[in-house]
Design brief:
471 residues, alpha/beta, five-stranded parallel sheet, 10 helices, 17% strand, rod-shaped
Length: 471
């Protein structure tokens, strides 16, 4: 067998004939034989998927480019690279099992543990046949990445910054980041439209899954930031999906942008068990878009109930003050009447005493006493009239003040009743409009008859409300 490579002639030896040249095919055949004998077994290897070409049709194979990179301060340094193949039948068994265990499909950028067998072909060179995949290694790597993200957010204080922001008592101006065609967004809007409260919703479209989703959502946040004073809260919602769809919400850049945003961010990503990193940095994290809508509706309902309680308390206090003032007025009237009667009795008694004294005195003294009596009577009458006039003036002044105060309270009450009546009419019109729309959708031919019945029912309700308001 000729040597595999040329050798230099040894010194002091006569020159030998030049070695025979090998054909390339024979040389590569020997390499193949050597690799087959030396690496006959299969091996577990750790690598990162740099490129991946999935099967384009049934029966096709999956082709990968595996790399081994070393992270340094200047970036990634490539240490090794090899081509690998997952044959069609084996791919149909390995890919679903990998997805079921990790929640994601094979894709570039994943670190995987594979069992491979070395293959060498004279025409295509060295390649690896993938025999098995260990999904537990990939799951652990994703968990380590998520834990590292949480640690970096904690170090920068971004996990609790959103939770310290005050949320409006009645948030109604909402900026929604979602896909316009997402089922979660449609459910969210449907839930709000069926409520009695009026919301101002501004949709900022963004991609909600895929590798471009984090950058798209950050761009939507940057779009909202200059107009943040026009919104009470920012809502990030999407429909349901698999674990793979939630990987975008574990992105460090997106989670940091949410944590540092100056407006409270409410998330409803659509997961029931898993919690994304964005949920940790958000102000409030809810499971579904419908839960987000119910959160806002419940907050406004509690506020509305509190206002109703305040209004009832104000009405009770006003009625109590009016009753107290009326009782005081009645007491003053009785006191004035009793004081006038007492003074009149005293003056009459004094007059009788003086009459008796005058009857026992001389006639001159009697005339003098008559004059004194007349003067005293006039003085007493004048004093009584003056006292009575003073009491009447005080009573009229107090009555006018009380009447003016009662009129102001009555005007305020009438304004409140008018506002309540307007709100009831507006709510009735909204309900009527929605009923017309539903009747028009359900039975277009029977709309007039049903609408007439509904209007008749509404007409019977409104007069009773007006009567109660006027009462």
């Amino acid at each position: 067998m000729p040597p595999l490579f040329n050798r230099r002639p040894e010194p002091n030896l006569p020159p030998s004939r030049p070695p025979l040249a090998l054909p390339l095919a024979e040389l590569l055949l020997r390499v193949k034989q050597t690799l087959t004998d030396r690496f006959a077994e299969s091996y577990w290897v750790l690598a990162e998927i740099a490129e991946l070409t999935p099967p384009r049709h049934d029966g096709a194979h999956c082709y990968l480019t595996l790399t081994d990179q070393h992270r340094t301060g200047r970036g990634a340094e490539l240490k090794a690279q090899a081509r690998a193949t997952i044959w069609s039948q084996r791919y149909q068994a390995l890919a679903p099992a990998f997805y079921e265990a990790t929640g994601q499909e094979l894709q570039p950028g994943l670190k995987v543990m594979l069992r491979v067998q070395i293959k060498f072909h004279e025409q295509y060179g060295l390649s690896l046949d993938v025999l098995a995949l260990d999904p537990t290694y990939t799951v652990g790597d994703l968990a380590r990445q998520r834990l590292d993200t949480v640690r970096k957010l904690t170090a920068k204080g971004l996990l609790d910054r959103q939770k310290r922001l005050p949320l409006a008592i009645g948030p109604q101006r909402l900026a929604v980041i979602s896909s316009p065609t997402a089922a979660g967004f449609q459910d969210f809007m449907q839930q709000l439209s069926e409520s009695v409260f009026d919301f101002s919703v501004t949709l900022v479209p963004a991609l909600m899954q895929g590798t471009e989703a984090p950058a798209s959502i950050r761009a939507a946040l940057d779009h909202i930031r200059p107009r943040r004073r026009y919104f009470d809260a920012v809502v990030i919602i999407r429909g349901g999906g698999g674990k793979t769809d939630l990987l975008a919400f574990d992105d460090y850049g997106l989670a940091a942008a949410v944590g540092a945003f100056p407006v409270p961010v409410i998330t409803g990503i659509g997961h029931e068990r898993d919690e994304a990193v964005v949920d940790l940095t958000a102000h409030t994290a809810l499971k579904t878009p419908t839960a987000v809508a119910i959160f806002f509706l419940d907050r406004l309902a509690r506020l509305d109930a509190a206002f109703d309680g305040y209004a009832e308390r104000i009405r009770e206090l006003s009625l109590g003050q009016v009753q107290t003032a009326a009782d005081q007025l009645h007491r003053l009237v009785r006191y004035t009447h009793q004081a006038a009667q007492t003074q009149f009795i005293e003056q009459r008694t004094l007059l009788h005493q003086r009459i008796r004294q005058a009857a026992t005195a001389p006639r001159a003294q009697l005339r003098q006493q008559h004059r004194i009596l007349d003067r005293t009577r006039h003085v007493a009458q004048r004093a009584a009239q003056q006292a009575l006039a003073g009491q009447q003036r005080q009573l009229r002044t107090f009555g006018r003040a009380l009447a003016q105060r009662f009129r102001r309270h009555q005007q305020r009450r009438q304004l409140q009743l008018l506002r309540r009546r307007y709100q009831l009419q507006l709510a009735t019109e909204r309900l009527l409009h929605r009923a017309e729309l539903r009747l028009a959708q359900l039975r277009p031919a029977a709309v007039p008859e049903a609408l007439g019945g509904f209007l008749a029912g509404t007409a019977t309700v409104l007069p009773s409300q007006d009567t109660a308001a006027s009462g």
